[in-house]
Design a protein that fits this description.
The protein contains ten helices and nine strands. It is globular. Helix content is about 35%, strand content about 15%. It starts with 5 loop residues before the first strand and ends in a 12-residue tail after the last helix. It is α/β, with parallel strands linked by helices and about 300 residues long. It has one domain: Flavodoxin domain (Rossmann fold), CATH 3.40.50. The relative contact order is 0.15. The strands form three sheets. It has a five-stranded parallel β-sheet, with helices on both faces. A two-stranded antiparallel sheet has the order 6-9. Strands 7-8 form a two-stranded antiparallel sheet.
Length: about 300
Amino acid sequence: MRPVGKAIICYFSGTGNTELIAKGYAEALRRRGIDTGLCRMEDVLNGKRDADFSDYGLIGIGHPVYGFGAPRLAETFALQLPAGNDMPVFVFKTASSPHRVNYSASNVLICRLSNNGYRVFHNSLLAMPCNFYVKYDDRLNKQLYRSALGKLELLADEIAAGSVRELRVHPLLEHVLRRLYVWEERVAGKTFAKGLRVGEDCTFCLKCVRNCPVGNIALEAGSFTFGADCLLCMRCVYACPRQAVKATRLRGSVVKPFTGGLRLSKLLEDPDNDGCYVTGRSKGYYKHFIRYLLDTEQQCGIRKE
């Protein structure tokens, strides 16, 4: 691997979970002597930032997992980059579960990067609070974020050393998951967007219009309109200061209250939250978190046998 003096992390984050991880990666790499900056993918796609990163020796690409895949915006971003000329890249993703069904979420993105001359050598998955349909207990939200911060130190060591990390999944399973992702992109996103409404609590701050990553929200003749180009990122719903943006279709998909994203910093400091939801004795759905948490959560009774 070529010497790395400067790195840039390009990320997309709907509700803030991936942004926290991108910032955590940047801080961890800086502690290892790598001057690391941050770049939002939407700023490149909207022409607010140049896509030429040839002055850097390392690129990080981060995204949330949507329907077992990467958001369309992330895959489009990969196509906008200039030729890589063997530039090393590490890819990371955030999801509500560390299960292997999310392992292949970056594969199309990685393929596009590789075809354009980038050398993807490191691929990782970090579990963060769920922002879609399932409301995690805040003890688990704190536990996942705390664990992610610990794992970032281990992953940053690997990246700084140029170590290879792969996430493998059976090709047949990957094919099925990709079809599910395409369905969500083409059907669920449009259905959700058609049902978005703005309530009486709206102060017309236009934060939702400015912050929609694909420009899918507009104010016309005093009324808000929502197009069909929705990513289902949920940013307009969760980031509204007055919670005025409401879902009337797929309304169960909105988690109330959502304590992920930027709210996690306060959750991490809450002395009344022990952050020990998953333990070595957890069963059912949460049992699959035990192996993921082994290297960071010994204080919660999660230990190797």
